[in-house]
Design goal:
Layout: H1 48-63, H2 68-75, H3 78-89, H4 100-103, H5 106-109, E1 118-123, H6 131-136, E2 143-149, H7 152-159, E3 169-173, E4 193-198, H8 210-220, E5 221-228
Parallel strand pairs: 1-2, 1-4, 2-3, 4-5
Helix pairs in contact: 3-7
Amino acid sequence: MDETPPHRSHDPTTNTKRTDPFQFGQRYLEADDDVFEYNAWDHVTPDDAHYLYCEEQYMKQKAQPVSDFDKARFNDNPQKWWDLFYKQKTSTFFKDRKWLKQEFPVLEEVSQPDAGKRVVLEIGAGAGNTAFPILKENKNPNLKIHAYDFSTKAVETIRASPDYDEKHIQAEVWDVAAEGNMGLPPGLAEGSVDVVIMIFIFSALSPAQWTRAVTNIWKVLRPGGLVLF
């Protein structure tokens, strides 16, 4: 009989991740563990040697900055590089985010049959690895996901999916850091969105764009709406 506790089990029938609701804080790193067994451990306090190692890595990176030539090359026309990325990777690079409802219970709430009309805006939708998992478990006939990305190729990838149904999902090109009238997403009015999903977005923007991005998000969000970040 397997006596592995559920919070350490990889067996889908006993893994604590299958419990509802999933409880965080159960993965304790022990002396004999393989540190790469999980992608995250709870309750780990780094020691001084770890902090020293981190500082050494920071110094190595600072000693080899990106050249001015490459800075200009990538920042002057970022859409070109994102389109090239999605042209090469299509839908094979990212994995479906099956953990979304664990992290963000509101996505379960808006997917319920009696939730009523709900509008979800995903920024940086990529190949649909957030939008499609939500839709696959959706029971709300009035849920609409607006899956927007900076890359034309990413939007084309979403639209080409057999799961793309315009009744529940709309994919468009949009720059969250756009100025002026371009700051509103296509097909959405001010104060019309219940939930905004932003996963790994600010790391793809220049710090100079952050304020504009937040302003655009605030503008489209309804009073009481939520940003999942």
